[in-house]
Amino acid sequence: MANADGILDGWLPDVHLDETGRTQSEEAARHLAEVRLRAMVTSPMERCRETAQFVAARKRKDLPIHTEVDLAECRYGEWSGMSVEVLRKEPLWEVVDRHPSAARFPGGESLGDMQARAVRAIRKWNRRLGENAAYVAVTHGDVIKAIIADALGLHLDLFQRLQIDPGSVSVIRYTQTRPQVACVNITGGDLSRFSPGRRRKNTGDDAPLSRRSS
What is the number of structural domains in the chain? Predict the structure, then answer.
């Protein structure tokens, strides 16, 4: 939700990866190097597009990189650019923490709306890229938690129980009957086992290797 300085970046422009973020992106790219990808889909935020470039650099030169606005960070509205230390004193902070489905940021969007658009985007790209396609979705921590919560059948009020670290990889397979969460918050190791053709039979379509970039 916040960057390393404890600031909510949200949709603020010109927010780029710092040295730590670049290192984390390079590590994630290394872990994904052997995964056979159909495409990459990224939030329009600069920090996500930069992360996507790190991953793409280890892939074939013609790997498509698509920008998906519905995978962008939550619109924090008036909270954008404010420090967490200040925001913790706001009554809404406790709602975000304990009852996020009821939280709407002043001048921004609700967490429920954010989840709905993000899940809609993932479903759209699953259909567009087709059966047995593996792809990387580069997006933000709260967005990833919301997508995973939906895949697990968790109410949005429970999504804060999930931990998504910067530079981590989470894998969801979408089958004809249900999503299957294969792993969450992986920060190391070879992920080639998630390439199409190396997974178990009868599990349906591979879905995004969703990553946090900020």
Answer: 1
